[in-house]
Amino acid sequence: IVQLLLEHNTYVNAQGGMYGSGLQAAVSRGNKDIVQLLLMHNADVSVQGGTYGNALQAAVIKGNKDIVQLLLDHRADVNAQGGEYGNALHGASTSWPQHICVVQLLLKHNADVNAKGGKYGNALQAAS
């Protein structure tokens, strides 16, 4: 259905609703094929809004390392602020040890370990 909508010129970066964007919805559902399709149609990885704040935060909270890497490859801002958790590192840190690989990936991409924000305040509090 997504392909069909894209073929009929749907606006790939339309914002609103629970997920904030189509990209964040696909990420939240863990649908890598749809994420790739949307990115091929120039979905903006930086769109803010929705439950998780942005697509990268949705991916880390879901613990989907492959989608996290895909978004980072498309220049998602690892330190973008917003959403309930504040940023991607805070979100990933709340779910350790299950998401340790995601935390390591974010750190490899220069996630700010001292960034403040979100309901936990910082990554250390989120992980503790």
UniProtKB/TrEMBL annotation:
Pfam families: Ank_2
Cross-referenced SMART domains: ANK
PROSITE patterns xrefs: ANK_REPEAT
Gene Ontology MF terms: ubiquitin-protein transferase activity
Source superkingdom: Eukaryota
Cell inner membrane keyword on record: no
Gene Ontology BP annotations: protein K6-linked ubiquitination
Keywords annotated in UniProt: ANK repeat, Repeat
ANK repeats: 51-83
PANTHER family: 26S PROTEASOME NON-ATPASE REGULATORY SUBUNIT 10, ANKYRIN REPEAT DOMAIN-CONTAINING PROTEIN 39-RELATED
This protein's name: Ankyrin repeat-containing domain protein
Organism field: Rhodocollybia butyracea
